[in-house]
Design brief:
With about 280 residues, the chain is an alpha/beta fold. It contains nine helices and 13 strands.
Amino acid sequence: MWIVLQNTTTRQHNNTTTRQYDNTIKMRKIKVSAVSYLNTKPLLYGLMEQGLDKMMDLSLDIPSMCAEKLLSGKADLGLVPVAVIPKLKTPHIISDFCIGAVGAVKTVCLYSHRPLEKVQRVWLDYQSRTSAALARVLFKHHWKLNPEFAHAQPGYEQHGKQDEAVLVIGDRTIGLEQHYKYVYDLGAIWMDFTGLPFTFASWVSNRPLPSSFVKKFNAALSLGIDNMQIVIDTFQPSCPDFSLKAYYTDYISYRFDAPKRRALELFLAYVSGKEIRSSLVYC
């Protein structure tokens, strides 16, 4: 399964350059940037177990850096925040796997000391792109609130003032609910708002990749998901107060299925202010 976000002229240009690019990229390792959070461990396990690391130059980064590397061409492929997709000239979603949620996601939350209607400022996670955009969408279209949005700096997570909320994503959310009275799970709020699941990150390339690599890549990701218990047994000791089994099975949803595709189109339409469906080509 491929999704290409592009116009007709761009697609025609791609058709004439794909073969040339295939020959070039086969001569070197494919540069891959993946999220470094716990939610990515099952996917990374599959890649390593299948030996895909020998075909890749893999770096583990925070989500915003994954996006930046794909945008700048420092990576050929990334597990990137979906909010970056419209900014890429020729994005290709190459996988049936993603980082998603069907309702609550557990590790993408707004934290505050007061109800949101009493919040004046929202600190947006510096590691985030999609979640920051999602927070803005929900404030505007769901809660009908208009707080000030500010970009946070490292170390902000536990320092929200009485009239502030903090958006925090990833592993840093673990235990953070102990410091705030109110916790708003953005996956659950999006589901309440739209009735749809949500896709936070997808495997996106900035140009066509060799079909042989894409096939092996997806098989490796599937292997990782099918061997979830091994991943849990490996990483659970490092998270004694956080149930990885519950997280991987009750919160994170890895299949990029039809409902998540519809949710992605809707989210990008909210973000861009225009219809996205017509420019998404499923191959």
